[in-house]
Structures are given as structure tokens and as C-alpha cells.
Amino acid sequence: MKTDSISITDQPIDYAVLTEQVRSHECGAVVLFMGTVREMTAGKQTVALDYEAYPEMADQMLQQLIDETRDQWDVHGIAIEHRVGHLTLGEISVAIAVSSAHRKEAFEAGRFLIDRLKEIVPIWKKENWSDGTTEWEHPGIKTE
User: Fold this and answer.
1) What is the tens place of the pLDDT at every residue in 25-75?
2) Domain extents in the chain
3) What angle do CA 10, 14, 20 make, to 5 degrees?
């Protein structure tokens, strides 16, 4: 049985739990992607990130991404968790786990999911810079 999980949370992401949600005896591959708060972005020092989301729409869009992924790759399980709120350096902002019979499908599906998530899911990120300035990044608008 194929398994999927979607979550928008204000709590720290437990990537081990997320990974276990997709593991199966049917699968020889589990790929985990974690996005973390990094210190330097485009030559500017980040001190924290703030994430906001439109949860109902984000859930719908994440389910759409899962459906699109399943149309392209034979994957067993997909789990996506995105954090909202104030995150400091090193904290996990997003985690995606994908399982499949073979690694190629798991890697390709995982990459597709994070790339599309950043393009279309209504989750907004505010960069808090060390000089006291801030900058919002919206889905589909890349600042890197």
C-alpha cells in the first residue's frame, strides 16, 4: 500500500519520523531532503528566517505535487513537512522523504518535489539579515 503524508507545522521537524513514514519492505531506496537555515545568502548574512503559509491552500498544492510526482515516477511513499514561524540558523525548514523500489526514481522524485514546492506552494519566507534589514521571498520568485 502506498503512503503519503503532508504537514505544515510550527514545531521542529523530526526527519527520522518522516523517513520512517515512507519506509517499506517493498522499497530499496529512501531519499531524504532537508532544507535548513543557512548563514549566507547572496553574500548577505542571515540571522533567522520567518515562514508564513496559507495552510489550506498549501495542503492542496502539496497534494497536487504528490499527484504530479506519482504520474511521473513509480514511488511508494512521499512525506512532506514544512515548518512555519521563526527559525534560527541550522534549523530544518522543510523535509521531504521519498521511497521507491530503486534509487533513481526516489532521487528524481525528491528533486522534483522540492523544486516545485518552492515554485508554487503558498509558503513565504522572510530573510532577517544581520544588518537589521529584511526581505520577503514568494513562491515562484527566486532571489538566489
Assistant:
1) 999 999 999 999 999 998 999 999 999 999 999 999 999 999 999 999 999
2) 5-137
3) 135
pTM above 0.90, yes or no: yes
Angle value at C-alpha 124, between 9 and 127, nearest 5 degrees: 105
CATH topology of domain 5-137: Aldehyde Oxidoreductase; domain 3 (3.90.1170)
Residue with cell string 502506498: 2
Does the pLDDT at position 131 exceed 90?
A: yes
> Residue 45: what are its φ and ψ, rounded to 5°?
-90, 120
**Local structure of residue 132 (DSSP, 8 states):** S
